Amino acid sequence: TMPRVDEGSAKARQLAYVHDAATVSTSEQPRYAEGQQCANCALYQGGSAEWGGCPLFSGQQVKRTGWCNAYAPRG
Ligand code: SF4
Questions:
Q1: What pLDDT does residue 1 have?
Q2: Can you name the CATH fold of 10-63?
Q3: Which residue in 28, 36, 56, 62 has its CB near the most CB atoms, within 10 A?
Q4: Does residue 57 sit in helix, strand or coil?
């Protein structure tokens, strides 16, 4: 299985990715809105799994409860 994204990695920091969307501060991340998480992002490839791929983190898995500032609602 693919390794999990390290929140402290340069890429994660660049995208403000965290495993727990509930910890995102709207003052620091104005694009964030409550309820947004990888699980309902158009880019999440994990289906109903707890961890899944995301094209922005090639070769790694993000957590379904995660979030980053490239979040795009699933259409
Ligand atoms: Fe999660 Fe979507 Fe960001 Fe990928 S683009 S890390 S699925 S919020």
A1: 81
A2: High-Potential Iron-Sulfur Protein; Chain A (4.10.490)
A3: 62
A4: helix
